[in-house]
Write a structure and sequence with these properties.
The complex is a heterodimer of chains A (316) and B (316). With 316 residues, chain A is mainly alpha-helical. Chain A has 13 helices and no strands. The chains are: A mainly alpha (316), B mainly alpha (316).
């Protein structure tokens, strides 16, 4: 009798340490996802923002299907038309369909913005973690460099880099790449400082000391143990930053420093719409509304996420 | 306090160093020779003239010596001559600063006048329809690109209603009435986005203050509610609001590039924009450097002002 009991006991230990099956793992992920959705649902801003983003991504993914016209092909039989059944947002001065241009422009814009923020995070995170973790002189120098870069007001750092790119006469893909580089490069000091400030508090905690005691490598502690605890403010920051980056790209291409025509581009289209403000003021309305919608979606989602992830703000 | 001020000024040095290095590298990274940039194509062919210019501009020296020479000249306000107008860059810039500062100050003041009442009412009536409206409006406000808002204002107030001029500038020293007439639309465009930020800021710092104990004390002493709110709470809540508005002023100086271009406002932003269009490198370089320095100095002043307004902040 005692032996069966022992065996039962042993079986349960084995069960406890054996890795979860695929089904079990999926069930756990589903629970986590459900929790996350529930949290999102509680914050109205985050939920509305999420819905707007889902709608945006769906529309942009479906662009090749739902845009009926070629966004860059001129149609001289139909320029500067008011919205109609054929062209629901009208046409521009070359007779190009605004609706198609807004959609294709959005695809490009959102893609560039996401890549730029990812690039900024890819530099900023290791930079900030290591700076905060090692402290001392490394940290001082690293942070002064950030301060210097942050001292460039507004869009000037982008202007500088993008102007330089224009002088090198890069085209198409390479031009977009420079834009991504410029936007990401200007974001990295902010990301780095944010991570660093969280790392400074995290590294004093017991678990870090414990890791030191058992002889883990510094790099491992910094990147694999401390970093995961600093993620949530970064997510919020990156989301809000996406909206900001979209505004910057629009402003740069409005100034004629985006990609050369005839690439569909919200900022550049707005700029050329200014020449026809008297004949067709609606021309300037749609690309602007598209920018507002996209930026608002990211801002709402980011704002809501902040409320969820920062328990200090719970009662607001 | 004195030690703190000295400390802060010392901290500015590395920031300015990074700033100057980035701006200096800009011209170095341009394609082709600096000589090509400085003189015309035919002249650049002449090897003797080339050697002479190399020596004159110190371009035969190692790069760090060149940086030193450039910095020394820049410190004396010598940024070279504009490639277009052939006038000293410092004079070109100096002439454009007043217009920018004028627009920036009026824009910021306008935003504070709108945002502080709106933000404090939203905080006092937290979670009421008024609060939600203020929050939604300010969130939309920060999502609207300022140049689009400017264009929409021009379409509405200049083209449709014909109330205001669509662009132009009159110095307030010449004719104050005309000057204000031309100022309204640009200032509105600058102030609008700023007002959205400041409203959010005022609301959250009011909420922070209202949770503090002195507010309860004041109430328990029998002070009337308006007195508690407007005499004590708002005063304290305004400290961070005013500080951040000050910091925004610096940012705004760099961000006015687009707005000044739209309204043909002869400020430093438009000067830099035109320089970019004309490939006028000395002007771009100097303009960005000057704006960067203004930002660093304004930030320092605001920081000091913050400590004067709020003696509780430790000087650290």
């Amino acid at each position: 009798m005692s032996s069966t009991e022992f065996q039962n006991g042993r079986r349960s230990i084995e069960e406890a340490i054996k890795p979860p099956t695929f089904g079990e793992r999926m069930a756990r992920y589903r629970l986590i996802a459900q929790d996350a959705l529930l949290e999102l649902y509680k914050s109205k801003t985050a939920f509305v923002g999420l819905l707007m983003l889902v709608a945006l991504v769906t529309i942009l993914l479906l662009t090749p299907v739902i845009s009926e016209y070629n966004p860059v092909k001129p149609d001289y039989s139909a320029f500067l038309q008011k919205p109609s059944a054929e062209h629901i947002m009208g046409t521009d001065r070359y007779g190009r369909d605004i609706y198609s241009r807004v959609l294709w422009g959005g695809r490009r814009l959102v893609m560039i913005a996401i890549l730029a923020v990812v690039f900024g995070l890819a530099i900023g995170i290791p930079y900030g973690v290591l700076s905060g973790y090692y402290g001392g002189w490394t940290d001082s120098i690293a942070m002064r460099i950030c301060d210097g870069l942050l001292a460039f007001p507004g869009i000037l750092l982008y202007l500088l880099i993008v102007t330089l790119a224009r002088e090198w006469q890069l085209e198409g893909f390479w031009n977009d790449l420079i834009l991504i580089f410029a936007l990401g490069f200007a974001f990295f000091p902010e990301a780095a400082r944010l991570v660093r400030s969280t790392v400074l508090t995290e590294k004093e905690k017991e678990y870090v000391e414990a890791s030191h005691t058992i002889g883990e490598a510094n790099l491992y502690i910094a990147m694999r143990q401390i970093l995961p605890n600093c993620i949530s403010p970064l997510i919020v920051n990156a989301t809000v930053r996406l909206g900001y980056v979209i505004l910057i790209i629009a402003a740069l291409s409005f100034l004629g420093l985006g990609s050369p025509p005839p690439t569909p581009d919200w900022g550049a289209d707005l700029s050329s719409a200014r020449d026809h403000m008297e004949q067709n003021p609606l021309l300037a309305v749609f690309p602007g509304l598209a920018i507002c919608y996209t930026v608002l979606a990211f801002n709402l989602f980011g704002d809501g996420l902040r409320d969820i992830l920062d328990p200090r703000l719970v009662d607001r | 306090m004195l030690i703190y001020v000295i400390n802060r000024i010392l901290q500015m040095i590395p920031v300015l160093f990074v700033l100057t290095v980035v701006v200096f590298s800009f011209v170095q990274l341009l394609p082709g020779d600096v000589i090509d940039t400085l003189i015309g194509d035919e002249e650049a062919e002449d090897p003797e003239l080339r050697a002479l210019l190399l020596k004159e501009y110190g371009l035969d020296q190692p790069i760090y010596v060149q940086y030193g020479i450039w910095l020394g000249k820049a410190l004396q306000g010598d940024f070279g001559k504009s490639l277009i107008t052939r006038r000293p860059v410092s004079i070109e810039l100096f002439e454009s600063i007043p217009a920018t500062v004028y627009l920036g100050l009026v824009g910021i003041s306008l935003s504070i006048l709108i945002a502080v009442p709106l933000g404090s009412i939203a905080a006092v009536k937290r979670n009421s329809p008024t609060d939600y409206t203020a929050q939604v409006v300010s969130l939309i406000g920060i999502s609207i690109p300022e140049f689009w808002f400017a264009i929409m204002c021009v379409i509405l107030f200049s083209l449709h209603l014909g109330w205001l001029p669509s662009s132009g500038y009159v110095s307030p020293l010449e004719d104050i009435g005309q000057s204000i007439y031309y100022l309204i639309l640009p200032a509105l465009a600058v102030g609008f986005r700023q007002a959205a930020y400041t409203t959010r800021l005022t609301r959250s710092s009011m909420l922070d203050e209202m949770n503090k104990e002195y507010v309860d004390t004041a109430r328990s002493l029998g002070f009337s509610e308006p007195k508690v709110i407007y005499k004590y709470t708002l005063r304290n809540a305004l400290i961070p609001t005013i500080t951040i508005s000050g910091l925004q002023l610096a940012n705004l100086l760099g961000g006015t590039v687009v707005l000044e271009t739209i309204f043909a406002w002869p400020g430093i932003g438009q000067a830099i924009y035109l320089a970019i269009i004309d490939h006028d490198y000395p002007l771009i370089q100097a303009g960005i450097l000057v704006l960067g320095i203004i930002v660093v100095v304004v930030n320092l002043l605001v920081d000091l002002l913050y400590r004067v307004l709020n003696p509780r902040v430790a000087l650290g």
